[in-house]
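ugh ok fine here u go
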Amino acid sequence: MALFVGRVMRNRTAAITAATALLVAAPALADKPTAVLKGVERPAVSAIPIDFDRDNAGRKQFGKLIWRGGINLYARSPFFGGYSGLIVDPSGKSLLAISDAGTWLRADIDHDGRKLKGLSDASIGPVLGRGGKPLATDAERDSEGIALAGGNTSNGTAYVSFERNHRILRYPITRERFGPPDGALTLPAEARRMSANRGVEAIAPIRVGRLKGTTVAFSERLADKTGNLRGWLIGGPTPGAIAVKVIGGFDLTDAAALPDGGIVVLERSFRYSEGVKMRIRRIAANELKPGALIAGEILLEAHDNLNIDNMEGIAAHRSASGETILTLISDDNFSALQRTLLMQFALTDGKPVLAEPGAR
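structure:
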């Protein structure tokens, strides 16, 4: 019986992985809501605990990261899902996620000790346009990145990057309202070469160190002359173009500023022969220089033998104990075959731990 159950679970996992891969490759197949959310909803968000290593729940160290828990999230709302960007409050007690359907999710983060447990006091609302009305069309609401510009998730300002109509707008945010925008960051002229569906994928305003006042932005697919991914240092003391070295066919999906003035970037890869993968790289502050080609340091690379989905958003904060915590969220493409996963890792500066036998 145990063998049979194991086979069923492996087959189910393989089916979900295949479905995830298909939707990553062709997100138009997903069921994104066409209706416009008019006001704020307060759905109950259910959370099912997950282990990063399904076969070894006791395993906690992955590369240079320590597992701090994960949850699979559900809510009975057609507007729940599609999360492509993430903010965690500097206190670590709440989050704000943005969906490419023109909505936001705000919730308190619950922990059992240091372990991620669930979300509470959740609300979903519309992103407002310049006229104060909810964004209505895909060309307007296709958001990809979000970052805290000041304050916190309940009373502050956030930058949001959009593609199709490429722009980075600044939004005042409260617990009940997201916008309308009251400012914008000026994109470099080079950004005009981005194709409609390959815009600014990630933004990370740096608030400490020598680059304080700089916003790091990365395109989704705009390449330099050598095929590496183009990005920019916008504003700050040393603005200019940068490039991130493309390694192994991964695409960059998000970035977040670290408490030390550097950044982390989240990457995803899909091939039919290999399935879905994710990777996290750390880029030190001294690597962020105009004209630089940046490789960074790989903190974690995960294949779909570990518990991942279409990982799209990353945030970083410093815990009360002094740990740097990375929080990740997946984009379910509004598909019943995919999941909205939320997971946390603590960043260590020790040497990477070798994977257990049989792990990829």
